[in-house]
Amino acid sequence: MVVVNDRDHVAWHEGMTVHQVLKAMGYSYVLITVSVNGKHVPREEYETFAVPDGADFKAFHLAHGG
Question: Half-sphere exposure of 21 toward its Cβ, with a 13 Å CA cutoff?
Fold first, then answer.
């Protein structure tokens, strides 16, 4: 089980990636930043970064404007 933003849960499976967690949560906003167990994950690693079982997964929508 992966805990997302301290409130939601995603069923974990072997080889699960950041991209798969975001997809399972329905997060499609382009400007999302992610940390897994307190470690920032660069966007270019979302497809390959393995999320461990029991991970503390944080996804933040970045705001922009002017």
Answer: 35
* Cβ-based neighbours of 27, under 8 Å, separated by 6 or more: 59, 61
What's the whole-model pTM score?
0.90
User: What is the per-residue pLDDT across 18-27, written as a single tens digit (0 to 9) for each?
Assistant: 999 999 999 9
Residue 51, classified by CB atoms within 10 Å of its CB into exposed (0-12), middle (13-18) or buried (19+), is buried
Q: How far apart are the first and last CA of the chain?
A: 39
Whether the Cβ atoms of residue 41 and residue 4 lie closer than 8 Å to each other: no
Structural domains present in the chain: 2-61 (3.10.20.30)
CA–CA distance, 53 with 21 (Å, rounded to integer): 12
